[in-house]
Amino acid sequence: MARWAAASDATVGRVVRVDRGLASVLTESGPQRVSIGGGLLGRMAQDPTEGPCTGDWCVLRDWPDNRVTLERILPRRTAVVRAVAGETSHGQVLCTNLDVAAVVVALHPLPVLAKVERLVALAWESGARPLVVLTKCDLVNDADLFAEDVADAAPGVDVLTVSARTGEGVDALRGRVEGRLTMALLGASGHGKSSLTNALVGADVLSTRTIRDDGRGRHTSVRRELVPLPGGGAVIDTPGLRGIGLIDAEVGVAQTFADVEALAGTCRFRDCAHDTEPDCAVRAALADGSLTWRRFESWQHLQRELRWIASRKDARLRAERIKEWKRRTRDAHRSRP
Ligand SMILES: Nc1nc2c(ncn2[C@@H]2O[C@H](COP(=O)(O)OP(=O)(O)OP(=O)(O)O)[C@@H](O)[C@H]2O)c(=O)[nH]1
Ligand SMILES: [Zn+2]
User: Fold this and answer.
1) Is 330 helix (H, G, I), strand (E, B) or coil?
2) What is the predicted pLDDT for the residue at 245?
3) Which atom of ligand 1 is nearest to the CA of 104?
4) Nearest CA to ligand 1 atom 1
């Protein structure tokens, strides 16, 4: 790091977007479009999560022939990582160095609480401060009622209600970046992330698109953009996430379900399955209605998903170890006289 900082041919910047093998990087002297250095490409071949991602702080190098390459990524403070289908060893990094992880959910059509919980777990797991932003409040009359349900589903997380169309709540949301923080918008396609980014900036910086009549978004956007706000701070608009698989998100799920976890901690048996065990605090809460079946099942579902991913990962590691062990014993046999 010191070596890079001292070199006159090196500059530090922040990755705004990565596409087609090039990174758009914001530096003190303005935006630059750069290619990725050979050393970093090599590391990315081993582990794609090492590659540059929107939000990364990085070191650029100026070459004598005027090329600029991205050589190094500075350690990430926080990161949003999701599971990738068919890939069990590492997830996909969606954005990094965010301070606020805003879960964006439209109030119309009626949102599904389990999906909110899944996104909130992803947000907690990022290491940033989670926030729920309920968008399109201009389309419904009972926004506050739903906001209360969401608040119950995300203990300890603030819930804001906004409309990009009327501007309601946009100032309050902008206040969350305090003129210097980075806020990432996480949510499914069509829930209004790009419209919200435009509203926060006060100009059309991202293209939004018309939505299908049934209210369901098409999976069209692949961009991931960091947009600086005029008053300071930045917003990262992530692509619409269709299926958000969790990976290594035990902490995020526990934080999202802090109330249920606290109950489970008071069951008589430490390994209570909350099924037929005596003195099960979770069952008792379900029976007296203080815990809803919906939330209980959502909690169980996410835990099963995490266990499944973890077991797949273990199986893969085991298979790799066996292969490695076979290779070694084979080599040992060969090296015998
Ligand atoms: N009525 C109303 N419509 C909105 C609001 N915000 C967004 N929309 C509409 O919802 C649709 C989707 O908005 P986008 O901002 O493109 O959604 P997105 O989450 O960025 O979607 P992706 O780019 O696919 O990730 C567009 O037709 C918007 O005009 C709002 O506050 N009120
Ligand atoms: Zn129990």
Assistant:
1) helix
2) 85
3) 19
4) 136
